[in-house]
């Protein structure tokens, strides 16, 4: 995290995994249990993106919109949202100077179902010969 905090011009760090959570957080202070203070970097998590893993949350992928003009003016901001497999948009936020003070609607806990998926298998192990 020290290298991330020290990277100039970094607007955000974006990650996704196999959970239903969709969130962003402005890391702008020392968080309990950490030794590095945040510098205002936006940390964002994107919800379940594929059919591996566990859970039946709707699949989606985080999308970003950056303005070339804003970047030229050194305004480090971006709009981000999750586009779901059904085409909807959830978790839309503007990562700008007022992020964390603005109000955004809650992301619905929508589920999706794959009739051929086995949701009980988290990660299958290698086959032994």
TrEMBL record:
Q: Which residues form the signal peptide?
A: none
Give any GO molecular function from the UniProt entry.
hydrolase activity, acting on ester bonds
For this record, the Gene Ontology CC terms, alphabetical, are: cytoplasm
InterPro entries xrefs = Metallo-depent_PP-like (IPR029052)
Q: What is this protein called?
A: Calcineurin-like phosphoesterase domain-containing protein
> What is the originating organism of this protein?
Metarhizium anisopliae BRIP 53293
